[in-house]
Request: fold
Amino acid sequence: LLQKRHSDVQAEVEEEGMHTKIQYLLVKIGRSLGYDVAVASNDRMKSYENDNFSSITLQEFPVLEMSDEVKRTVTLIDVIWFEKNTNKIVCAFEVEKSTSIYSGILRLCDLVLTLPDSRGIKLYLVAPEQREREVVAQLKRPSLAVNRDVQISYILFSELCEHCNSICKLGADHTIMQKIARSAG
Reply:
């Protein structure tokens, strides 16, 4: 029983480590493309490779036209890229290692359905390969399929990890992410 508990805890630590790594890569890419980057409010104290998220991301979440309740939800989105020195969101990413994929989708939907001018915002789920089928199934749900305002693509962990440095080196703006993103449709 103790051995089982130990392996469960170890698996949890590894999962959390992978989630933090993926967040870090998204922060690194966003910054290299010239964006201001925010991480989820509950992740600001995390660090990866001796980089504290609090020192490489925005100190405060930009003011957005939305209720406090929705803002609390939106500030839990894993990574958001903003045009430099503005509150204009360019991309939002939910990293879904082990949590409910649908909760990440709902946070992204809340974001774009609340902001007055959200048409240009690119939304992404970022997930491990073993969850791809689940991601596609969730993205094909009728509640998302009927809403043309919400277009969510997904990126696999392996693609992000493999291409991160190339994206940082060769990317001019957020559109380079579409090269590794996939669509559920």
